[in-house]
């Protein structure tokens, strides 16, 4: 009897953890403030990696990271500027947390978007032509989650055949 209950617990814990994670991500996307950010392809030879469209997000800041491997944040309001995470000003009421990666670019974990293989080529071309934008949900703690990919201002599903 103890082996059977141990097996049930071992099976239920990962399932419950995945369900809780999915629920928390859904709540974050639904409750955060929506921000629209332009995207551009960063490597014309390989915008697609598997079924993920990979791109750079244009946060609207003129200066990038000065070092790599450090935590950073981009203040979106009242003024757009990149700060080290511990130097974020108190009056910044909307920001995205992330880090400076090995190429000294800001990375918030929203730099790829899953797409079905059937639409890969069409979306790659449109992003390469600078027609893409992300709708991102940003919570009060600076966590960003992708709500949708826009092509020419419309949801990506409406822009592919």
TrEMBL record:
Pfam families documented for this protein: GDYXXLXY (PF14345)
Domain of life of the organism encoding this protein: Bacteria
Protein name: GDYXXLXY domain-containing protein
Biological source species: Candidatus Thiothrix putei
